[in-house]
Amino acid sequence: MTASMFRQPEGPRCIYLLDDDPDICRLVSSTLREFGFETFECHSAMELRRLLLARVPDLCIVDLGLPDADGMDVVRELQARYACGVMVLTGRGYLSDRVMGLELGADDYVVKPFEPRELVARVRSILRRRDKAPGASMQPEMRSQLAEFGGWRFRADCNLLSSPGGQEWTLSAGESRMLLQFLQRPNRILDREQLCGDRDLSALDRSVDVRVSRLRRKLESDPQHPTTIRTVYGAGYLLAAEVRWL
């Protein structure tokens, strides 16, 4: 894992805005700056990649309709390579797009038109969840713990999940944060707010359920009848396994 994958030293929270509409970028940027955020605007995926070479932000706000790339591919790339939050801000309001964005690891999905103050609240919610995530305050060299459970292994320093048979997956940042929550509190019921670290989670927010589903597709032999990550109806989810930290 390279140093560029970790967040930069503390200061004003840094946000990159990727949208091919300059008016939208200016509106979002000016609103966020009013609340003390540092913002940088870019209008293509190529511009964003140049910015990422110099600095990894706390959050990227990504439009899906880009001139030089599919926005979903950008979301996938951000989650796979960089330790930053991702918000999708788009005119695509279809449920299938929202589900796909969340499955790729986006922390939130906001449809245009939007209320600027609500956008600020959502940005703060994402940053708050990430700050509360297990290992968020640790230095990279302190996050090299290895967890073993039911024959599976998870390396928290590189988001690597290994099956008993040797198959490996590199989890998205969102999946890794959720799995760490389970591994740190096995055989205990965790509600949706605990799993995402946000007490302000909307009752209609399905991002937790989407990530549970993604983890089950990897961990369960039959995801429709899970035995490792169990649903406790009306309460939350439970990791039914003994966990050993190596």
Automatic annotation (TrEMBL):
Coiled coil: none annotated. Residues 14-127 form the Response regulatory domain. GO terms for cellular component: cytosol; protein-DNA complex. It comes from the Bacteria. GO terms for biological process: regulation of DNA-templated transcription. Residues 144-241 form the OmpR/PhoB-type domain. Residues 144-241 bind DNA. Keywords: DNA-binding, Phosphoprotein, Transcription, Transcription regulation, Two-component regulatory system. CDD domains: trans_reg_C (cd00383). PANTHER family: DNA-BINDING DUAL TRANSCRIPTIONAL REGULATOR OMPR, REGULATOR OF RPOS. This is Two component transcriptional regulator, winged helix family. The lineage of its organism: Bacteria, Pseudomonadati, Pseudomonadota, Betaproteobacteria, Burkholderiales.
